[in-house]
Q: What sequence folds into this?
């Protein structure tokens, strides 16, 4: 599971799942570039948790030009990229009749467009990574099941699964594996803010393991897919959901 000598980029790394992924990759030896956009205090705390193996870089994944410039900076400073984790996302909760155009556009621009922008910007470096490279997309169970009141978010996460399989086919011959991790109900700020106690209890009843997952559960799956042990795994969706979807 050693990632010694690898350079990883984790988008949306200041909180929740992204923070846990950055910490886990660093613990296994990777140098981690931690992307964030708004929350400087959270980003600084996450960087402190990662320690000397991490470096913060602020850019908006939805801005293609900003992404291009950021990856040029990363390659110049770090010598290349070996692992890309597309985690940055925003939650948009609204029934379709009440959804605003801006909500739809932002959900797709960040959750789906951000993954596309970062992958396109990183690919040339990834294709030249010694020993092969990894792209890991953080999807969601709702991208496979749908979710009432989360149309834009579910659509973006479903699109991410399509991109995962497409990129796996496009770049396998260049030594790049591409997989998705699809979390279920994970305890984060995003889930805590968007669920009533009644809805939370309802979801827990549907999870065979009977409990909420942690960001560290998702991070462990990412570490596996980033590791040498997953060299023959590509185009797959690894579900981390306690049995919520089988």
A:
């Amino acid at each position: 599971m050693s990632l010694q000598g690898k350079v990883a980029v984790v988008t949306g790394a200041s909180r929740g799942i992204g923070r846990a992924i950055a910490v886990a990759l660093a613990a296994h030896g990777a140098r981690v570039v931690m992307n964030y956009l708004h929350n400087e205090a959270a980003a600084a705390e996450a960087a402190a948790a990662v320690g000397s193996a991490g470096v913060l870089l602020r850019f908006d994944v939805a801005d293609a030009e900003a992404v291009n410039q950021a990856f040029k900076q990363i390659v110049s400073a770090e010598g290349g990229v070996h692992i890309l984790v597309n985690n940055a996302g925003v939650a948009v909760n609204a029934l379709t009749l009440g959804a605003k155009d801006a909500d739809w556009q932002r959900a797709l621009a960040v959750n789906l467009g951000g993954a596309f922008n970062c992958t396109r910007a990183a690919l040339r470096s990834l294709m030249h990574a010694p020993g092969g490279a990894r792209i890991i997309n953080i999807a969601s169970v709702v991208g496979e099941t749908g979710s009432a009141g989360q149309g834009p978010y579910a659509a973006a996460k479903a699109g991410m699964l399509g991109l995962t399989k497409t990129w796996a086919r496009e770049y396998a011959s260049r030594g790049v594996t591409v997989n998705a991790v699809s979390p279920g109900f994970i305890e984060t700020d995003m889930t805590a803010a968007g669920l009533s106690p009644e809805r939370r209890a309802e979801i827990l009843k549907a999870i065979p393991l009977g409990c909420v997952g942690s960001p560290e559960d998702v991070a462990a799956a990412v570490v596996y897919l980033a590791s040498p042990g997953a060299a023959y795994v590509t185009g797959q969706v690894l579900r981390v959901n306690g049995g919520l979807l089988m």
About this structure: The chain has one domain: 7-240. The CA atoms of residues 59 and 70 lie 7 Å apart.
